[in-house]
Design brief:
Blueprint (H helix, E strand, L loop, with lengths): L9 E3 L31 E5 L7 H11 L8 E6 L11 E6 L8 E9 L3 E4 L7 E7 L14 H15 L29 H10 L1
Parallel strand pairs: 2-3, 2-4, 4-7
Antiparallel strand pairs: 1-5, 5-6, 5-7
Length: 204
């Protein structure tokens, strides 16, 4: 998850090192200020492009893992769509992309939309949709997802759906052991942990 934020993309490198409620004595610095419209946040459909269909089960698991924390956030149907590889099809669009041997295991961008400017990656806007890219690089010594264990592939995909849901990387590394949103390393957990749950409850 060497997931440093460059521009509007939230990368997830995980290379070997992978705002909370004020009532809890924290700030909400772990949450993006952008939002899904309330009319769609509980019905976010997920389209999986041909290039990512080898990870379909992990994507289904990731979507399910974030459901049930808050009624206002829900990933609904997960389906395949060949056009997802090239365009904005659903609320959440998952595609495979060669992000390089030393690149990221995955990255995510949430997009706003206007008639004038079209789609713009923007973490502080009202979101129209999201694009998640999974690294399909095939170099056996590189950062393609194929080189991770089953558990760590699932952790990576679930982590990216955390970004889709409006969560940043943890601002405090003391939270890393109780969060799937750590910036470096792995917890070898496949579902949101207690800190992630607190963030979602605060946000929604």
């Amino acid at each position: 998850m060497n997931k440093k934020i460059f521009s509007s993309i939230v990368p997830f490198v995980l290379a070997g090192t992978l705002g909370v409620s004020t009532a809890m004595g924290h700030t909400n610095t772990d949450i993006y200020s952008g939002n899904w419209p309330s009319s769609v946040s509980n019905n976010l459909d997920v389209a999986v492009g041909t290039s990512a269909q080898g990870y379909l089960l992990r994507i289904q698991n990731a979507a399910s893992a974030w459901n049930g924390i808050e009624p206002a956030l829900n990933f609904s149907s997960v389906y395949t769509s060949s056009s997802t590889d090239t365009s904005h099809v659903a609320r959440v669009n998952v595609r495979g992309a060669d992000l390089g041997v030393t690149g990221l295991y995955a990255d995510t961008s949430n997009y706003s939309y206007s008639i004038i400017w079209g789609y713009t990656a923007d973490w502080s806007a009202e979101w129209k949709d999201s694009i998640v890219r999974l690294n399909t690089n095939t170099n056996t010594t590189g950062n393609g997802l194929q080189n991770l264990s089953y558990t760590r592939i699932q952790e990576t995909v679930t982590h990216e759906f955390g970004h889709v849901s409006a969560l940043k990387h943890n601002s405090n590394t003391t939270e890393d052991s109780i969060s799937i949103m750590r910036q470096y390393g792995f917890n070898d957990k496949t579902t949101p942990l207690s800190h992630d749950v607190s963030m979602i409850q605060y946000k929604y």
